[in-house]
Amino acid sequence: MSSERTFFQRMEEFGFLGHIYDHLPPEFTAVFEIARILEMEDSALHKKLAPALRLPTLEHTRIREEVELFAPEVIVGEEYEADFIRNRRDVARIYSWQFALPDSVFDQRLAERMLWMPVSKAPKILPIQEIGESFSFDSRKQKVFVLFDTSASMRQHHRIQLAQAILIYFLERNKSDMGFISLRTFDDRVHSHHSATTPESYNALVRYILRITHLGNGTLLQNALLTALDEIATMEHLSGAEILVITDGAVSIDEALIRSRMDKDIKIHTIKIGHAKIFASDKMIDDLIFRGKFGNTKMMQDLLHQEHEIQHHLRHSEGHDKHHQYEQSLRYIHDQIRQQKDKLSEEFHKQYGHELERLSEVYIEIDDFDDAHLFRAEAEEIDDLEMLVASLEEDAEEFFTPEMTKKIAIMHEHINFLLKYETDPELCKRLEKIDERLRKLLMSAMNAEEDDTQHSALNAQHSSSVSLPMTDEDIRDLHFLLEFESKLGATQWRLLFRYLRKVVAKGVRRIFRK
Length: 514
Prior knowledge:
Blueprint: H1 7-13, H2 30-38, H3 44-53, H4 62-68, E1 79-84, H5 103-111, E2 116-121, E3 142-149, H6 159-174, E4 178-186, E5 194-196, H7 199-210, H8 221-234, E6 242-247, H9 255-261, E7 268-273, H10 282-290, H11 297-316, H12 320-351, H13 355-359, E8 362-366, H14 371-374, H15 379-396, E9 399-400, H16 402-421, H17 425-447, H18 456-462, E10 466-467, H19 472-481, H20 489-513
Parallel strand pairs: 3-4, 3-6, 6-7, 7-8, 9-10
Antiparallel strand pairs: 1-2, 4-5
Helix pairs in contact: 2-6, 10-12, 11-12, 15-17, 16-17, 16-19, 17-20
């Protein structure tokens, strides 16, 4: 289980301490806090998601059994296969059963060089994928096609961070069993295709998932499903892929159309966040029923036909008794139409908006988080954070590296995220003190470089702290990590970059002196 002590380790795994190519998402450390809950095997969230957190159709022992059929080492020695003789001297080497052939047949085969003999050949070594914990492509492994909802409603209750944490946990838990990963996000359109076939592309996919910030209007789930089904059907490397849908949307899709595109082996698994519902309007239901698009169409059409006939007779009847009889018949038909319509409407409401649930082999609906409760730090967690800051301070006494600066920036963002939801005044003070220690740590490193150049050598002799030069990439990463709105303030922001320039210049001077 992750604790605050693993904060920097998880931030590194998530790519938040490196590979920074864009601004980090707002409140990105919420993913870490949610993942901590998800990884607790006794938590209600973990137990509820358990059926969807493991690939259900993958035979986990199949690949290992196949590997054990062949030795991965090169076989020493020779193998043999049957081949025809090449000259008369090979007769002594032919298979002995051929001497039992009639003389005429033996002589004819000898003349035509059709007698069989064993011939040595180099052994054929079958390449076998080594079993390991890291992700690697193997056509025998399970393929997964992920459809990830990025609609605007995912902003509510940190649903996007919850979805990211679930997906990352799913990928990490099953990465050694997955042979090909495909991903498409969808909102008001279906977005571009992302895939993983190597450890490098797997890590890039994880970084992409955790940096999703654009959320669009609409939830085109049907288009996303059709796109995935078409690609699975047409791309050989996706054959047999299972579809994982993560969404918060309540949408109606054409169930018959989706089933017509599904192969018998394709399975859909769905994780729905929240309890949003969708309801059909009365006008829509009336239109479907009266057009014979839903329910017992023959009974409704017969009633409508009878209504039309009675109305025709009623308009042309002259006698009072006859007119009264038609009116009673018409009232009875109207009652029958209303009863039939109410029955069909009730049935339609039960089915409408639940098509994805019926299409899914695994369908899990989870509650929204109580943000104020989930992200409120406990005393033990703050103890861990204080320990992390103490470790940074201890390391800074000897070396102040670019990596430490990134850690300070990441920790600063995390502390301010926790402060938004902390309600205990004493714990708030502790968090504020941790953030103050981080700012002092950064300021001490910057102030250490404010001395004149002529005193640098003397200071270096009497100080055990050494600042390592930052590369252009380090400075770029810090630009993305430290936002202008941060509590460091604009003045300290300018001071930080003045410090960075001095560090780089100092490193250049040392190089030229050598």
